[in-house]
Amino acid sequence: MMMSFLRRAHAFCSMHGINPLTMARSLRYLPTFVSDIARYRRSPAEAGFPLRLGNLFPVLVDLHDSAGSAASQSFIQDLWMARRLIPHLATTKGHNHLDIGSRIDGFVGSLLASGIQVTQVDIRPLPNPPQGLTFLQDDATRLASLKDGSVPSLSSLHAAEHFGLGRYGDPIDPSACFTFMHNLARVLKKGGRLYFCTPIGHERLEFNAHRIFNPARLLSLFAGAGLKVVETAVITSQGQLLEGANPADHAHEDFANGLFIFTK
Known about the structure:
The protein is 33% helix and 23% strand. The chain is an alpha/beta fold and 264 residues long. The protein has two domains: 54 residues, no CATH class; 191 residues, Rossmann fold (3-Layer(aba) Sandwich), CATH 3.40.50.150. Helix 3 runs parallel beside helix 4.
C-alpha cells in the first residue's frame, strides 16, 4: 500500500513539473558545480568561451547518471511490440497499419522508420505529423468510421486505460474502455492481428490518471469478442520482462504491463 502511494505521489509531482528525486540529486551535486565553475575560470584563455555568471545553466543530475535507460516499462513494451509487428507485416506483404493512441516518439516512430505507413487516431492534436503518418484527431471509443472486419493490422499501447476519464478532454464515460476494446475486436479483419498493451494487476481506478485491469478480465473480454491469443508477455512492477508469461497469473501486481497479441 505504501509503495503504491509513493508511486502515485511521485507520478503526480512529475506530471506537474516537480520531481522530488531530481531535486534532491541536484542539491547533492551543487557543491561540485560551484567547484567546476572555479576550475573553469582558472583555465588558460578559457578556450575562447569565457564563463559569464549571467549565462549559467546548471545541469546537476548528469554527473553520475547512466548513458540512458532501457528499463522503463514503456521502452520495453514499445520494443517488444515493434519486434513482432514489423516482421509480421513484412511476411504478409502489408505496409499499412492502424494505431490508436500509442506513443509517437516510441512504438509508432519505430514503425515509421521501418517503412510502414501508419494511420493513427488520437483525441489530442498532433501538429506537423512526421512523414509516413496519417493522423486523425478523433475520439476512437466507437471507431464509427471503420467497418466490421476491415483492419488487418491494429495496435493500441497504453491507451485503453484512459478512455472515458476526461484526462485528455474526452467525455466522462465509465464504460468507455470496454466499449473501445469491443470495437477493436469488431474492426479487426479475420486473420488480422491486434497488438495491445495496458496496465494489469490489482484492479482499480486511479482517477483521472488511468485504470489498472485484472488481466483475466481482459482475456475473457477479448475471447468473448472472438479473438484468440497469439502471444503474451508481462513487464512486472519491477520492470522485468517475462516472455511468454500468462498475464492472468499477475493479478497480484501493483502496476505491471500486460502485452497481448490477438488474432481473429
